[in-house]
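Minutes, project check-in
Item: structure for the 227-residue chain
Input as provided by the requester:
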Amino acid sequence: MKTLTTIKKLSMTAAGATFVALGVTFAHTTAANAAIVALDDSNSWVSPGTNTLTNLGFNMVTVPDPSLAAFTNVTTLSSPLGNLTFTPSVNYRKIGSGWTSWSHGYTGEVYYSNGATSIQIDLPASIAAFDLYVEPDPFNIFNITVTAQNGTTTSLTQPVNGNAGAKYFGFYGTGGDLIDKITVSSSVGFAVGQLRLAKPVPEPASVLGLLTIGVLGAGSVLKRKLK
């Protein structure tokens, strides 16, 4: 019985060590592959393809409508995941009430840049995915660039029609990278709307860590039973 107990103990120890080693390997791999990936309008959740943020595993949370009076300047928006801060402030509008058009039938709130050609949105802590729609103020086509930043920087530029042509811009972090700020810029004023954000998806290393704890715990139970 003592020999059997020793074998069981060694077997469980080896299994635990294997899972720990795998977890460390995954952690190093994900850190080395840290990046922010951009998704263009073809990956919008409105006309879902295979590469939407939801399909990639992110639980996207919509920034709720603060229900302000039209033309109110906004510096901070509250969301279930924390506050978003705008620099400079933006102006609260509704489609059909202060902002003429959008796209895909949306009739909710948008935030006008007040004529500024660039705004920065500071996000809450630990945000791994973010998306929004943007439309230029003039009724014509203009390039709009959205940049996501943290440890790395990724930009996406798309031509957007100011006449009912709002387009989707999405970003997500890989390898443990997060997004702490978004910059939207163009040669003209614009509005942003339909803002969503998400916390990180659990990395493989985290899952392996839980498995390791489970294996070591099982080994401890077996050792007690075999005494």
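Outcome recorded: The first strand starts at residue 35 and ends at 39.
No further action items on this chain.
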